[in-house]
Design goal:
It contains four helices and 30 strands. It has 413 residues and is mainly beta. It has a single domain, classed as 3 Solenoid (Pectate Lyase C-like).
């Protein structure tokens, strides 16, 4: 990619005093945020770091901002594609990544993904288009987003688009907890690609030992399996998601320990690649004793899903407050309209999935080019006008810069 002249502008760091008043406890990280971890402070009150380069590394890059220490709010004065040679790694806590600040067409990460091994993180309005280049992370572990280890907690991943992963689009592993993925698109994981185990294509994996994970208002489409896959010794809330065209859809259980799952108001739809005779929520035969799954208002191809024999329970084993649950009949319209990185400005990959007036198109794929030409957007730039006194309280517990970010996010939805 040829960068414009400003691509090598030096890194801008604007530091502001935190003041002495502190911040409201229990305040949602943004207005309307719900789910586990949604009260994280993320980067509130921290240094403001401005990404000015689309390079993989070096001054002014996203990688440099992620590797910085201390609370920080990461903004973007550039738009376009960041071609990664290896995964980004977020290992230092208290971070807000505000992709909504990027000028049109927004920020797309390609070639690799993001590993999160720390706590108190908010990520919004980024696209992850991993791909199958011969270079990059090992194909057996080439995900879009990985949330890893017991230190990964109080994390909100909201309004992102992920696709073209070789392993999983999104994975949780090693004991993360208090994490929400919301209003996102998880699609087109690659099937016959480079994975060492052979055909793959996986949506979301919630690994053994993952607790207080919430998946809310997401669209999962054209992934062979793991839509989502919830393993044992886990507690997961699955609410108001739209799941389309997997060989299998949602599955629960493993021998590692009881899985606790509340599945409410989800819509499962068959597609051209969906196998016949499957249940939308499948309990694995090796699920540990004590597994509990609650199903309410889940629909499969226009019919209410009625569980049969197995670990189905009437009580709700996993819950979080506050939580707004919408009836399932509202989910298809809401999710197809509002999910993804930039709903008002969808890129070619999201457009290849969603028809302009509703409904779906496409199938499970082996390589990105099967959904048609994916033109690389031109690099763009705009100078941000950060609000004065950005860390002062706006009067509702949010700071001036947070209120500004919330407004920019709403403008993209």
């Amino acid at each position: 990619m040829k960068l414009p002249r400003f691509g090598c502008v030096l890194w801008l760091i604007v530091c502001f005093s935190l003041g002495s008043t502190g911040f409201a406890s229990g305040l949602a990280v943004f207005s309307g945020a719900e789910g586990f971890g949604s009260a994280t402070r993320a980067g509130r009150g921290g240094s403001v770091l401005i990404v000015t380069s689309l390079a993989d590394s070096g001054p002014g890059t996203l990688r440099e901002a992620l590797e910085a220490f201390g609370p920080r709010i990461i903004l973007f004065e550039v738009g376009g594609t960041i071609k990664l040679r290896k995964d980004l790694h977020l290992r230092h806590p208290f971070v807000t990544i505000a992709g909504q600040t990027a000028p049109s067409p927004g920020i797309t990460l390609s070639g690799a993904g993001l590993r999160i091994t720390t706590h108190d993180v908010l990520i919004q309005h980024l696209r992850f288009r991993v791909g199958d280049l011969p270079t990059g992370p090992p194909p057996g572990n080439r995900d879009a987003i990985q949330v890893l280890g017991p230190s990964a907690s109080n994390i909100v991943i909201d309004q992102v688009s992920t696709s073209f992963a070789i392993d999983e689009n999104i994975s949780f592993w090693g004991g993360p907890h208090h994490v929400t993925v919301s209003n996102s698109i998880v699609s087109f994981a690659l099937r016959n690609s480079m994975h060492p185990e052979g055909p793959h294509s996986m949506g979301i994996l919630v690994g053994d030992g993952s607790h207080n994970i919430s998946l809310i208002g997401n669209l999962l489409a054209h992934n062979v399996e793991r839509n989502p896959r919830i393993k044992g010794d886990s507690s997961v809330l699955v609410v108001n998601n739209l799941i389309y065209n997997g060989h299998r859809l949602m599955s629960v259980g493993s021998p590692s320990g009881p899985a606790m799952v509340s599945a409410i108001g989800n819509v499962f739809l068959r597609g051209p690649d969906t196998l016949g005779g499957i249940n939308p929520i499948h309990i694995e035969s090796n699920a540990a004793s004590g597994t509990k799954v609650h199903s309410h208002d889940n629909w499969y191809n226009g019919r209410l899903f009625r569980p049969g024999a197995g670990p189905w329970v009437a009580e709700v084993p996993v819950w979080v407050q506050p939580l707004t649950i919408r009836p399932a009949y509202q989910v298809p319209a809401l999710v197809t309209r509002h999910a993804g990185a930039r709903p008002k400005e969808r890129d070619a990959a999201d457009r290849a999935l969603l028809m302009p007036l509703g409904g779906f198109r496409g199938r499970i794929i082996d390589r990105p080019g099967q959904i048609g030409s994916l033109p690389e957007p031109l690099a763009t730039r705009r100078v941000l006008q950060i609000p004065p006194h950005p860390h002062d309280d706006s009067g509702d517990g949010y700071t001036h810069i947070e209120t500004w970010l919330h407004r920019m996010s709403r403008d993209l939805q």
